[in-house]
Amino acid sequence: MTLKTEPFVLNIGPAHPSTHGVCRLKARLDGEVITDLECVFGYLHRGIEKLAEERTYTGIIPLTDRLDYLAAMSNNLAYCLSVEKLAGITVPERAHYLRVIMAELQRIASHLIAVGAFLNDCGAFMTPILYMLREREKILDLFEMASGQRLTYNYMRIGGVSQDVPEEFLPALTKFVDEMPAHIDEYDRLLAENEILLARAKGVGILPAELAVNISAGGPVLRASGVRWDIRKADPYTIYDRFQFDIPTGTVGDCYDRYRVRVLEMRQSIRILKQALEQIPAGPSRSAVPQLVRPPAGEAYARIEAPKGELGFYLVSDTSIAPYRCHIRAPSLINLTALRDMIVGWKIADAIIIFGSIDICMGEVDR
Amino acid sequence: MTQTLSGKDIAAKLETQFPGSILESSEAGILVNSQTLVKLAAYLKTASGFELDYLNYVTAVDYYDYFELVYLFTSLKHNHSLVVKTRCYGRENLTVPSLVSLYRGADYQEREINDLLGIKFEGHPNLRPIFLWEGFEGHPLRKDFLA
Amino acid sequence: MTLLNPVFQLESSWKALPPDWPGGFFWHWLVFTVIILAFVLSVVMAFIWLERRGLGRIQARLGPNRVGPFGLLQPVADAVKVLLKEDIVPFDADKIVHWLAPVVAFTPVMMMFAVIPFQNGALLADLNIGILYFVAISSISTVGIFMAGWGSSNKYSLLSAMRDVASVVSYEIPVVLATAGVVLLAGSLSLNQIVLAQNIPFILLQPLGFLLFFIGACAEINRAPFDLLEADSELTAGFHTEYSGMKFALFYLVEYAEALAVSAIIATLFLGGWRGPFLPPWLWFLIKIFAVFFVIFWIRGTVPRVRIDQLMALAWKFLLPLALLNLLITAIEVLIWPGTLPWLLIFVNIAIMIVLVLLWSRFFKLGWGKVEV
Question: Domain span at residue B72?
Answer without folding.
Answer: 3-92
